[in-house]
Write a structure and sequence with these properties.
four-stranded antiparallel β-sheet, mainly beta, 44 strands, 815 residues, single chain, 6 domains, 12 helices, ten-stranded mixed β-sheet, Immunoglobulin-like
């Protein structure tokens, strides 16, 4: 059973006792301060070497025993540490399967003692779902930050019409680790949504279901998936109204009766641009809200704030004939100001519920609940109002809060709002590279503060300011390990084909492990094929590029077949030069909504791409989704290849190429990958049949047989990187009788990697006695392990053989 260990980042009396004992034994552990740092780790390694123990630098019962320290360390239960093994032995070990021939051993479902999905939100402008997950314990996640940890999966479903029809819209994940000290840590996952937009007069409020499952991905298209470790959260969200509407849809909505011959001459699929929604005047708001219970200091708030911000306000008030904004509106301005002064952190209308950090996209998120139907400055056909969230980072050294930026989301009056409210989110890409450090130095935990403010931007200078409408929350986040930034720019390749470079074996070029970035899959000795994305980042890149203060860095990506026997002259590096699109989120001013668009990434006249990301501006910033540096079109290529990168500063001098250190101690600068762009070979044939006796009669593909015949054949499949093979009959021979309508052998032998080899050559047979008279095909399906187009596993190929099945002729009765 896996024990819980003291490791980098552990704190407390037991660590202090460990340090004292090491010091007494003549091994310097550094300061005896109860903090397990890098020097303590090195001392532990030295002790383990002396005692001939496993030299992993972590302290469990064996190492404590070698030091003569008696202590009980907490450990996760067997059902956690051996979760996958228990499922392999008995798929229904935890009693969570609805139908199973296996008997439960220990019933566990929806256990949230280690992780819990707390909040789900949606950003209508960015069209992306967010889910915030709390990691609650120091242990139970399969290893510390120098290990592979374990995956936390979130699968999303949407009920577009609120009729119980849940549609699977995808899954995403992050990696959790055993991390000592304060909890919870709040993580975020993001999923891009393709919403079904409607006219602004229609309140489009679908339900979302998010399923969190630790170390076991929720099965697709199973909204009632019964999980063991994790939970399910449902939320109602608001979809943005049409920005463009097809002419045909507009004619239908407007109930326009136009002559058919006229409609026949128009391309009804062409979009019509909707007018930009307009702001509602103060007088209109008073009229709209007069019987809705919205007080004047709510709907008049932003107007008063604008007046108070005017430098010339006092001078204007003193002018003869000054006409107040509130003139003739029957609004007592004195009473309104008094009510505003008494309002402090009011959360009747909106509340910030969760803060999360997305380690895959280096972004902070805030989940917001909008609670009431009115009080948001107009419906979906109007401009509405804004929920702004400012994010701050606590600097332990300077003992101060550092402003990171502000993100916003547009909200409206929604009269059909559910009693639980509507769930929104904001998304702010941030540069926390200064918090990054190697895994051997322990987890980097950062305290984050977020301030929600309705309609006015939160302060960017005062982290303690309490908003009039809104609230303030704090949390802890974990910044992934990595190289410590230098004072000069350094460029890194950190991913290829949606796999972290440390998960690619440099002796074979094959990848193993969970995918990185926005793709979700598990690789198992997988090559790469199709379009291979190359991702990376530049530490200490020029700042304020979007504001025009500095020029960007330029870079090139090179590839070549791996051949150590050849010189660079004999095997030259080939620069990538294709144009590809990059999805970016841009913020172009204080309080503005992020603009999401595709930017064509082209080489300049000397063959360099432009580095697009700029996260340093307080209000002007650009985030390149996925940190994509290049898209390498590998069609037709195969074998072992290598990738490298170079870059230059605006002044033309070279940028240092960084060396990434992996948990196993290896490093990556030039990355080797294996390419496989060939689909598996598959062939299936019919060779004969048996009818009422063991005698085999010859037969061919596309023949005709009678019910009761046993059809025989053969199949062959080959591939360098096989993953799976399957035989099936189409259509379903008899839905009421699952019986023997399967090709045999059943089981057909090894069907999945690693048991399956590089070639499969078998016979098959099919007993037709319970099948209906019909035309059928036997399908041979094969799939390999290639990571295709950086998004999913498997080049596929299928082969089919057809036949007809007839009723057996009726025998004449003897007279």
């Amino acid at each position: 059973m896996k024990k819980m260990y003291l490791r980098i980042g552990s704190k407390g009396d037991l660590v202090r006792k460990l340090q004292s004992t090491l010091d007494e034994s003549g091994i310097d552990p550094g300061p005896i301060d109860g903090i397990f740092g890098d020097k303590t780790r090195k001392a532990v390694v030295k002790l383990q070497e002396n005692k001939k123990l496993e030299t992993d630098g972590v302290v469990g019962p064996i190492t404590l025993g070698a030091l003569g320290i008696k202590a009980e360390l907490p450990e996760p239960e067997l059902e956690r540490t051996q979760f996958r093994e228990l499922l392999l032995k008995n798929p229904n070990y935890f009693g969570n399967l609805k139908v199973s021939p296996f008997k439960p051993v220990k019933k566990i479902t929806n256990n949230t003692s280690y992780e819990e999905l707390k909040c789900v939100g949606y950003n209508p402008h960015l069209e992306q779902l967010e889910a915030v997950v709390f990691i609650k314990r120091d242990y139970g996640y399969k290893g510390d930050i120098c290990s592979k940890g374990s995956p936390e999966y979130v699968r999303f479903y949407v009920d577009w019409n609120n009729d119980g029809n849940w549609v699977d819209v995808g899954m995403t994940s992050f990696t959790a680790y055993d991390i000592p000290d304060d909890k919870p840590l709040e993580y975020d996952v993001t999923l891009k949504l393709s919403p079904k937009e409607k006219f602004c007069k229609i309140e489009n409020l679908p339900k979302v279901r998010a399923i969190l499952s630790w170390n076991n991905p929720p099965t697709p298209n199973d909204p009632d998936f019964s999980l063991v470790w994790g939970n399910v959260v449902e939320a109602q969200i608001q979809i943005d109204a049409f920005k463009f509407i097809p002419i045909g849809e507009f004619v239908k909505l407007a109930k326009l009766e136009l002559p058919e011959d006229l409609l026949a001459t128009v391309d009804l699929s062409q979009p019509v641009s909707m007018l930009e929604p307009q702001e509602v005047s103060l007088g209109e708001l008073k009229e709209i809200y007069q019987d809705k219970g919205v007080p004047a200091h709510r709907f008049g708030f932003s107007h008063v704030e604008k007046l108070l911000a005017k430098p010339t306000l006092t001078e204007e008030l003193a002018k003869p004939g000054y006409v107040s904004l509130f003139e003739g509106l029957d609004i007592d301005i004195s009473e309104l100001i008094d009510d505003l002064l008494k309002t402090d952190g009011d959360t009747r209308y909106e509340e910030l519920m969760c803060i999360g950090f997305n380690p895959n996209q280096n972004a902070l998120t805030g989940a917001i609940t909008v609670k009431l139907p009115y009080g948001y400055s107009g419906d979906l056909c109007k401009k509405g109002s804004y929920e702004h969230v400012a994010f701050w980072e606590w600097d332990e050294i300077g003992h101060m809060w550092l402003y990171l930026g502000t993100a916003s989301v547009n909200v409206h009056d929604i009269k059909s709002i559910p009693k639980e409210g509507l769930q929104y989110s904001v998304f702010l890409p941030v540069d926390l590279s200064h918090r990054r450090r190697p895994c051997t130095q322990g987890a980097s935990i950062v305290r984050i503060r977020a301030v929600l403010s309705w309609q006015t931007l939160p302060s960017s200078t005062n982290p303690h300011e309490i908003p009039v409408w809104g609230n303030r929350e704090e949390t802890l986040i974990h910044v992934k390990p990595g190289p410590i930034p230098s004072d000069e720019p350094v460029i890194y390749i950190d991913g290829v084909g949606s796999m972290g470079v440390c998960d690619i074996d440099q002796s074979t070029g094959l990848a193993t492990g969970e995918s990185a970035g926005t793709a979700v899959f598990t690789a198992e000795d997988s090559p790469f094929g199709g379009t291979v994305t190359i991702t990376g980042f530049i530490d200490t890149a020029p700042k304020y590029v979007m504001e025009g203060t500095e020029d960007p860095i330029k870079y090139k990506v090179f590839v070549r077949p791996y051949d150590p026997a050849k010189t660079d002259a004999e095997n030259p590096w080939q620069p990538l030069s294709n144009t590809f699109n990059v999805l970016v989120n841009q913020q172009t001013g204080p309080g503005s909504l992020p603009e999401q668009k595709w930017i064509p990434q082209k080489i300049d006249p000397v063959g360099y791409y432009t580095y697009l990301e700029d996260l340093h501006g307080s209000a002007w910033r650009r985030y390149a989704v996925g940190n994509i540096l290049a898209r390498w079109v590998t069609n037709g290529l195969s074998g072992l290849w290598e990738i490298r990168i170079e870059a230059k500063k605006p002044d033309g001098t070279n940028v240092q190429v960084g060396l990434l250190e992996c948990p196993d101690g290896s490093t990556r600068s030039i990355v080797k990958v294996r390419l496989d762009n060939e689909r598996p070979f598959a062939d299936i044939t019919i060779t004969g049949y048996r009818r009422g006796s063991p005698v085999v009669h010859e037969a061919e593909d596309c023949g005709t047989f009678v019910i009761g015949d046993v059809i025989e054949g053969g199949y062959t499949a080959t591939d360098q990187h096989f993953r799976a093979i399957n035989l099936s009959v189409q259509p379903d021979p008899n839905p009421a009788l699952p019986g023997p309508a399967k090709p045999k052998p059943d089981p057909m032998g090894p069907t999945t990697y690693p048991a399956i080899g590089g070639a499969v050559n078998h016979d098959w047979e099919l007993d037709t006695k319970n099948m209906r008279a019909c035309g059928y095909t036997v399908r041979l399906w094969t799939e390999d392990r290639t990571i295709v187009n950086s998004g999913f596993i498997g080049w596929e190929r299928a082969d089919y053989v057809g036949f007809c099945l007839e009723e057996a002729p009726k025998k004449e009765k003897k007279k």
